[in-house]
Amino acid sequence: MTIDEGYIKYRSHWSAGPAPSIEAARQLDNSRHLLFAAGLIGCYPDLGIGFGNISIRFGAPGQFLISGTQTGSLERTNEEHYALVTSYDIARNEVFCTGPVQASSEALTHAAIYELNVDIAAVVHVHSKPLWDKHLDRLPTTRSEIAYGTPGMAFEFRRLYETSTFRSDGLAVMGGHEEGLISIGGSLQQATAKVLALLD
Hints:
Blueprint: E1 11-16, H1 22-37, E2 42-44, E3 49-51, E4 53-57, E5 64-67, E6 82-89, E7 94-99, H2 107-116, E8 122-127, H3 129-135, H4 151-163, H5 166-169, E9 171-173, E10 180-185, H6 188-197
Parallel strand pairs: 1-7
Antiparallel strand pairs: 2-3, 4-5, 4-8, 5-6, 6-7, 8-10, 9-10
């Protein structure tokens, strides 16, 4: 497996600033901690590279709060570990964010998913080789030639949303991002529960 997780591929316009919300960060951490305990968010110890990220709609329309880049190794997080994506341009491969840290390398994918439906309130991106192997091409799956963190991946999720059960079930496999899976929901708790249920 080739690991390029954690490297930001979009043009990041980061404005360092105060934590956007203590309360929202606590909400994110509660769900994130469950995923971390299950090994779905974490770090490749031999590479020192974190994996997995989580976000919720927050702020003005089109904005969202997302875990910061390279925070996967942290068992617990607080408001210092999240960034507010204030705007973005998928076609131009640009993300604008503010907060104590830069937004996750998957921020562009999260942005594209939120565009699909205003009822999507949360996006969870996890890693699991067993789940990826089991559900590849069984759950809706992005094309294998599409890399993570790119406009292509963003457009792939629109394709899946329009042509597969991703719209109704909220689960997908990232075919070109080994180990990667995505869960969406009308709440953070729902999105988290969906992916945890795959472990049963």
